Amino acid sequence: MSATTANARSAGTLARTWAKVRLLRESPVGMVGAFLVVFWIVVAILAPWIAPYDPNASNMDALADPGPSAVNWLGTDNQGRDILSRIMWGSRTVLGVAPVAVLIAYTIGCFMGLLAGYYRGWVDQLVNRIADIILSFPAIVLYIIVIMRLGPSAFNVVMAVVFIASPQIIRIVRGMTLELREQDYVAAAKMRGESALYIMLAEILPNARGPLIVDACLRMGYTTITIGVLGFLGLGLPPPAPDWGGMVKDTYAMMTIYPHMALFPALSITSLVVGFSLLADGIREISLKD
Amino acid sequence: MLAFLGKRLASLIFTMLAVSILVFVAFEFTPGQVARKVLGPFATQDQVDQLTEKMGLNRPVIERYFEWLGHTLSGNLGYSTLFKTDVNNIIWGRLGNTLLLAAIAFVIIVVFSIVFGIAAGMREGSKLDRVISVSSIVTTSVPEFASGVFLASIFVIWLNLLPGTSPLDPGGEWSIPSQLVLPVAVMVLYDLGYVVRMVRASMVEVMTKPYIRTAVLKGLSFRQVILKHALRNAMIAPFTVILLQINYLVTGVVVVEAVFAYPGFGRMLLESALAQDVATVEAASLFAVFVTVSTQILGDLGYMYLNPRIRFS
Amino acid sequence: MEDMTAATAKNLPAGAAQRQARPKPILELRNVAISYMVRAGELKVIPNVSLSLHQGEALGLVGESGCGKSTLAYAIMRYLGGAGRLAGGQILFEGRDMRKMSEAELRSIRGSRMAMVYQDPMSSLNPVIPVGRQLMEVPMVHSGASEADAKKRALDMLREVKLPDPETLFNRYPHQLSGGQQQRVVIAMALMAEPSLLVMDEPTTGLDVTVEAAVLDLVATLRRKHNTAIVFISHNLGTVVRICDRIGVMYAGELVEEGSIAEVFRDPSHPYTRGLLNAIPSLNADKRNRPLSAIPGQVPPILARPKGCVFAPRCVYVEPGRCTTKPIDTMFYGESGLHRVKCVRTRELPRHTRPGAANGNDAESSSAVAEPVLLVGKLAKAYRQTSGMFGGGGYDVHAVDGIDLAAGRGTTLAIVGESGCGKSTFAKVLTGIEQATGGSVQLAGAEIGSTPVEARDAAIKRAIQMVFQNPDSTLNPSHSIGYVLSRAIRKLRGVGGREARAETEALLKTVNLPEEFASRKPRQLSGGQKQRVAIARALAGEPELILADEPVSALDVSVQAAIINLLVEIQQKRGATLLFISHDLSVVRYLADHVAVMYLGKVMEFGSVAEVFSPPYHPYTEALMSAVPIADPDVKQERIILEGAIPSPTERPKGCPFATRCHRKIGAICDEQVPPEQRTETGHRIACHIPLAELRAVEKFAF
User: Fold this and answer.
1) What is the complex's ipTM, to 2 decimals?
2) Residue B145 and residue A255: Cβ atoms within 8 Å?
3) In this complex, do A190 and C433 lie within 8 Å of one another by their Cβ atoms?
4) CB half-sphere exposure, C61, CA atoms < 13 A
5) What predicted TM-score, i.e. pTM, was given to this entire model?
């Protein structure tokens, strides 16, 4: 195959993907979601250039009057740090950790789910049992145990999310594989001598992608909540890294006097999660129309 | 039916055993660490070794596991290094407080999720459906600590109607019921939308089924179609989901309790975890898993009862 | 009934007077237009249909899928869902305009004056309510009957639809009944309030042919007894002949022809009706003497319907200009004056002659199999059904129970049987997706019965390929047609690159598809086109044996004919052996050289197509043949209505598997002893206790 046809093909794929993205315009709810998500992605990317202050620099003078002002648009926190800058940098924490965690969880989940659903039998039994055991822990309890044993760090947060999300993804992928493996085109592939790996990756997985994309988008939202919650409980990133959940935790005690300190980070995380959820709903809506 | 029950019970025991091993491995595998944790960072190595010896921690792992399991099963949950008392003295009172919170929230969630879910799902795409659906998506997307902040801003700071914390002290400024309002509200807000969407999805699916058409073309009114033909079918799938909320309500209250300083099970778990109080965390996690697994079995049984296709097969 | 006699009383002049002389119809559709609101705007699904139905009369509506017959049925019930609406015209039911009725008025007639029977009885019944309760609802809602009264009427009705043991059945849930029983319950429910109009939407589609025959028989009896008018929707012309007095042919939203059964079948006047009739394989025709005539092309999508005659693009008699410029009027035609046709050229068309059996080379009469490519000996497949807590103490379900078969090189072996007979399990064993638990399967000398497909060597994989039943699951929706074919070529023949691409094009040509299809995705193809691609894929490795599992049963009859012709053509050109699995006897009669009739995992009869289709018949074969609805009102054949349902493989009878339903059962021996396999000198085998001489003494069926 020559390079030009390969290029032409990938250009075609790109065009088709873009056409699908444009379909989202038919779902107003999805558009709102996409706007929120894109907004935060842009903020996260540009944070070093657009954040007005160093997120960790304390301005002791501001402690006297930490409210929003012309200098600090969203005010300063309990240590005199600029809240706007901390929110901007904090978006990097969330949008750095969540996609990595979701991606790893998906890699594991798809692989194990395909194996369990395709081979069934003892492989399925084994994978299912392990998933059952992990899922029998309430998620938050598991987070607490994992972080308590491993200590708070971005890496450990990712580990914890992967540990808890993978079994759920395994369940989804396994269910779809069980259904798809009975399709006649899978039998046809077996009859022409395709390997099990090819069948799983080329015949089954692509046809499971619709629901998986929706789930992945929702899961980005859940993971954002999880990261926030861990931060709020003091199990997230060690200070002074800016982290929305941690920002709420540090200032919640001062709610009655300075509500803005907790309110702005709470609004930020809410808007991002709402964005992911609405986007997922929009994608689901247009995929049903197709 | 009995065979199924037996299978589920066997799997419950298996899961609990596996979980106990996991918990044991996570917390007590390396002997020195336990003693170190008990004694704190400033103890000398000598003291640690002595305590290890005294606690019998240098015996084989298997032996220690079964001893630990035996103690746990006989109700001896160990000594809490955080609360400086036996775990038994602390856990049950906390659990009671949490159950109070959970029970109120559960009743509200069940009632409202069914009402909203059915109302939204019976006419897919209607205005009512869209309003309920989008509201559910938004409310479930607000993290509990964030909705705590929002609700506190409105009802505590702005309107001064409710207390910002719920320590459940009877002699305080605020009555006990008023202390429960915000925690319950946060839990309901976070959880209700999810269940509503499950009920709605099931209802939407049922409404497209040919037997609904049969009912309509039999001459039944819309009301009769919904109440007699749709409702029961629509509740089969979400039943398990609704029961599973008990887990969230009993063990997932960590955040809500942390927000409102509520003296419950969740906050106990969090505090003991932050303080590396192994015995309390072990007991709490085993209990949490027990709740999960038993609600799953309960869910399966209810599902079987509701669905004659499984009941008579 | 009176109308029929009036209509057939000849020598009356103009039809108009006669039309006026008839009593007021129960149902009258005047210029009914139905449209659906979609994102793109308003879709005129049915632009203009008029028809009328008198008391006790049964009208069949036929046509391919997508022609609007079900839409019309639901419009009569005024049930069009949120997006559909009656855009014009009137639907008069018992003289009242349905369009002007309030919701409350509609409720009062639905289920009481007019009732409906649906295509899929299982899903039409509420799964969580016992069937008796569902019946009781009807009188309780409509006549305010008391519980006890309603229960009594429900039980009476269950008895009337000939359900065994109504008291027990009353408390059963739908899933505990067989398909045939479910449909009887639905019919009972529809008749609870003695409606004057019954709308039946494909009521027997999906039922096995013997069960279908029994249900049709019941409908015919009940209709006479209650004098109910019936609108009977079906894609099967044969079932319409069994039930109806009149037939309406629908195409692309229009009623193109309508008249009495006798008139329309003897003198089909619309080219589409002729096309439908010609596409059915039946009556003495087989692959040796006449190809089936398919209707070229397919039903146009609603937005692409032509301006003039909707059938013009597919019509062999089309005359550009007259046929294609403006919509065609309905004209009355024929002697009775009640035969309506929507074709400007009706009077000019040559009179339709039914294609008879040409005297070609007749089917081989000897049942011996020469040069066998496939040899199946004592093949068995049992599934282990586990029970109990630890999977101990299970029992075996014998899906295939010791079958002997052979297929000769370049010939077609057909396996026919109803659901649960083991034909699909047999196919799975051949493909290696499942493994045999006993006996042997030899393909060109190699033993493959218990080798899973993964363990078969390349030559065997190449030698056996399959065409599947369901066009929607046969092709991977994510892969383009070109990829599907070139991948098969590469894996089976080890050919890649330019050569594979050329080969792909050649394969597309073989199955009569244009080259451009290579870049299409399966969802852009129609069902028939997908099956063509599936056949091309099966041909990629130039197999010795092509296994075709009901390859046409999901297709419309006109498309089905084209696919069957293609299979015949390929077999003749390539000399491949075809194993054709089907439940459709007329297709089998047309296509097969040898036939095996299976029932509950056993071969009841095996022989050449000529011998299987003439006496001696196995009693089951005989029942199957009598059950086939034949699309010809002039063929009168004895109908054998079998009692009861096909037993599930878990409760297989001890002796002859067919003993529980056999109309020729001779006594306890049938229940207790496995029947011997009787052979004629030509190799025709029948597994039955009745002596061949006695079996020989029945009349030959018309096909």
Assistant:
1) 0.87
2) no
3) yes
4) 31
5) 0.88
